[in-house]
Fold this sequence. Notes:
flat, 2 domains, ten-stranded parallel beta sheet, 40 strands, Udp-n-acetylmuramoylalanyl-d-glutamate--2,6- Diaminopimelate Ligase, Chain: A, domain 1, 28% strand, alpha/beta, UDP N-Acetylglucosamine Acyltransferase, domain 1
Amino acid sequence: MEFTAKQIASFLSGEIEGNPDVSVNTLSKIEEGVTGSLTFLSNPKYTPFIYSTNASVVLVNKDFIAEQPIGATLIRVDDPYSSLAILLTMVSQAKPGKTGIDPKSSIAVSATLGENLYVGTFAIIGENAKIGNNTKIHAQVYVGDGVKIGSDCVIYPGVKIMDDCVIGNGCILQPGAIIGADGFGFAPQNAGDYQKIPQIGNVILEDNVEIGANTTIDRATMGSTVIRKGVKLDNLIQIAHNVEIGDNTVIAAQTGISGSTKVGKNCMIGGQVGMAGHIHVADGAMIGAQSGLSNSVLDTSHALFGTPAINNKKFARSFAIYKQLPDLNLEIGMLRKEIEALKKNQNTI
């Protein structure tokens, strides 16, 4: 598809600076921009590229001030990154969608299927499963018995949704995600071995949740592991049994959340964060990458960093000292030698 700068500006309610008739037919990063492409400037560190990019159109903030001549046509918007997301969504939706049920799929007679579905090759839909309208279930997806999937969902290849789990409307499950595997529950025995505790609960994903590739969400021991509406989980995340994650929280890759922990609404959690079990993280918390939480987070006035996680300002001061430890250790060693020398001189007097 091809659009003019004028059409794009109209769609985004932006202001044009330059040639309104220049057209674009692809998207590019600003440092790799080519003629006929649209790009954006959101991160200030990429500002030098706006003067050298060959992109035809660049989305910029309304308050952007150019310090050199710019060859591209600018479209000034409130938020270039959000505006790009709108355009990418439009492009994605314009692609022809798959429909129909592949004859090589396996669908239980008792399953209930909505309208305008796509079910791909070797997908399996179990007994009494219910699938909503306009949902796409790609190749080699497993949908267990009693699973409920809402409308307008996209379930990518290799996803496994185990028995009795519930997926809301508008959810996206990326390849390899596993929803509803057993939680990690074992009771220690007198003989030193472990007795498995059956996990009889389920997982509930509310509306507009996205689960990243190879992320695992364990079913509850009893009750439900719950991912609230609007939550976005990155790839390779582990969510343990009976965890609850609040509305619109976002979590980056390789984070692990232990059993029965409650994470609040609108939290931002970096990659490789570890959380102990049975703690509470308050609404709006910001947790830096590779942080470790062993206690509940109640004060959200500052971001937390480190293991155990502490106030980000205290962490920065502590880390500045930490980097000086080798020099401080040498200095302490020299002072010890000087003190020993002074003691010896004092004893000889």
